[in-house]
Amino acid sequence: MIHEARILHLTIAIPCEQAYAFACIPENFSLWAAGLATSLRRAADGWIADTPEGEAAVRFSEPNGHGVLDHWVRLPGQPEISIPLRMVANGDGTEVELVLFRQPEMDDARFEYDIALVKSDLKALKSLLENRLT
Asked: Fewer CB within 10 Å of terminal CB in the chain, N or C?
């Protein structure tokens, strides 16, 4: 099965190395990612976030030199959801790109809602980084 996908993108006026150094720390996701904002916590075997559907297991890619911030979310009784996220240097700034995959059970309204949430999260990351690091 091939999922419909939307690439969501914005530019942050902070050098990529600085933006990535902040964003690759899982605890910092809770400062800008609304879905993880109030409940992300370390557990013995990884990370847990509370959702309306129950506790979700969250995995993060290891820090790396390629700007990869991929993460994976598994809700109870559902397949793991992959969330590819990249930071790419653009001169003195950073391009942030997230691929949002439409899940099989999502209707159009739910997919558009998720797109709006991700856009809001990326704007929050931009604001946080530009205000914190400038």
From this structure: N
Label residue 90 by pLDDT band (50, 70, 90): very high
Q: Would you say 73 and 56 are in contact if contact means Cβ atoms under 8 Å apart?
A: yes
- Domains in the chain, CATH or no CATH each: 5-133 (3.30.530.20)
Q: Which residue has the tokens 């976030």?
A: 49
CA 103/CA 119 separation, integer angstroms? 17
Measure Cα distances from 107 to 70, 86, 99 in Å.
24, 26, 18
5-12 and 93-101 beta bridge pairing: antiparallel
pTM of the full predicted structure?
0.91
Distance CA 56, CA 47 (A): 8
- Chain-centroid distance of CA 102 in Å reads 15
DSSP state of 43: E
| DSSP element (H, E) containing 89 | strand 85-90
Express each pLDDT in 1-24 by its tens digit: 899 999 999 999 999 999 999 999
Q: Which residues contact 131 (CB under 8 A, 6 or more apart)?
A: none
